[in-house]
Amino acid sequence: MSDVNIAKRKEKCENCTKQCNKKQSDDGANTHQEREEVNGQIHEGSQLLLSACLSCDGCVSEEESLKISQQSLQEVERVLALNKKCDVSKHKVLVASICPQSLPFFAVKFGLDITEAAHKLCGFLKTLGVQFVFDTTLAAGFSILESQREFIQRYRRRHHDSHALPMFTSSCPGWIRYSERVLGSLVTPHICTARSPQQVMGCLVKNYFSKQQKLSPEKVYHVLVAPCFDKKLEAVREEFYNSLLETRDVDCVLTSGEIYCLMEQRKVSVEELDSVPLDHVLGEAGDVALVRHEGRGSEGFLEHVFKHAAKELFGLDVHEITYKHLRNRDFQEVTLERDGETLLQFAAVYGFRNIQTLVHRMRKGRVPYQLVEVLSCPGGCLSGRGQAENEAGGKVDKVLIQQMEEAYSSLPIRLPEVNPALHTLYQEWLQGQDSQQSSTLLHTQYRNQSHTQPPHMQW
To answer: What is the pTM of this model?
Structure first.
């Protein structure tokens, strides 16, 4: 995103109350849904749609604003400059982790296939002074496997735990922020505790990889390249900060667009960049085979959990999943049936207009699903505003998104269950799947913060 567009978004953030009082209608919500019960009281008048709220972030605290200000190219360049000037003992090892949903953006921009684009991006990052460049698919594998295990546990205790189901996925920070700040106890007990791929990668780099390199975690500066601005907010969450060592699991999140802008500012020619293979977290030699998980442009939590649950709970092998469109392409459901009986019913809910519909139904007790994959961006993670906006007016570039979807779908699918690196790390790093180490490093908790809701915001 250009500096101009960032400045416009910042300008819109200056007066939260003023913004919250305005009638937001671009999502086209029905007026009968705008008269909502909040904390037992009926509120009427001007309502703010969630899409306007989280694109504004006017309720970000001063402390959060300071932390987010450090999630910038300038901060990365500051660390790089110190590495060139200061005492060697104060140098930091820079590690960059790239989300698989960011790679299609660079493939389209570079006019290359995803693997070659990844190599060129790796080459560019290493010219800056980054020592190691990883792909976060391995971390996503951990997140998926832990989500599968948790769903099975929740399903089996559903009759004596009212908060067990439905389970909501936890990989989208926009959704998590809305849940904690606005929905509170209505939703937070239902959120899967598995850490997002970003934060699992943070643990993997700061807890495992740093030890392999015989480095203290604070000596590693971890940059993550993501398609979404909200990932910056996730990185500065309190639980992902080690106060003893004064280090974060992810020190800085940069969007795909910010990295591409840096390349443009430096007048980098893709043709002249070296093609450098990505690094292995386990330190193995050779190129990293880029793969993806199931699902259309995100990590496919719904599909993986659905197939695993069908097998684990009912002994059924599901090879193909058929989605049924409900309101639109971004509100779909999947059903598992046997002899006319519905065994499982999952939903994929993308975009805030659909999330509002889901929440409206939940308040009325009309959610039939055992699991809901929730993502704040319409179309999923590939459509993250850190890479899918055009420069002209800050609107979604539909042509670019279509090209990214085609590029992403070209990657081969690999199930996390058959990834030998995951099995190795579960044993060497985490002392097994059921260990306290796994619970501590791969899970977190989400809490009710709804008292921080700004005035005049209705949902």
So the answer is: 0.85
Phi, psi of 349 (to 5 degrees): -125, 110
Preceding peptide of 166 cis, ω within 30°: yes
Own/partner pairs, 436-441, CB within 8 angstroms, 24+ separation: 438/146, 441/195, 441/200, 441/203, 441/207
Geometric angle at alpha carbon 252, from 399 and 449, rounded to 5°: 90
Find the distance separating the first CA and the last CA of the chain, reported in whole Å: 29
Query: What confidence tens digit (pLDDT) does each residue in 77-113 have?
Result: 999 998 888 777 778 999 999 999 999 999 999 999 9
Q: How far apart are CA 178 and CA 148, in angstroms?
A: 24
Burial 93-120 (b: 16+ CB within 10 A, else e): bbbbbbbbbbbbbbbbbbebebbebbbb
Cβ-proximal residues to 30 (8 Å cutoff; 6+ apart), any chain: none
Q: Are 166 and 187 in contact (CB under 8 A)?
A: no
At 132 the three-state DSSP class reads strand
**Contact indicator for 371, 302 with CB cutoff of 8 Å:** yes
Are 305 and 370 spatial neighbours (Cβ–Cβ below 8 Å)? Answer: no
pLDDT > 90 fraction of the chain, expressed in percent and rounded: 57
The runs of H, that is alpha helices, within 2-72 are 3-13, 16-21, 50-56, 62-69
**352's tokens:** 């805030």
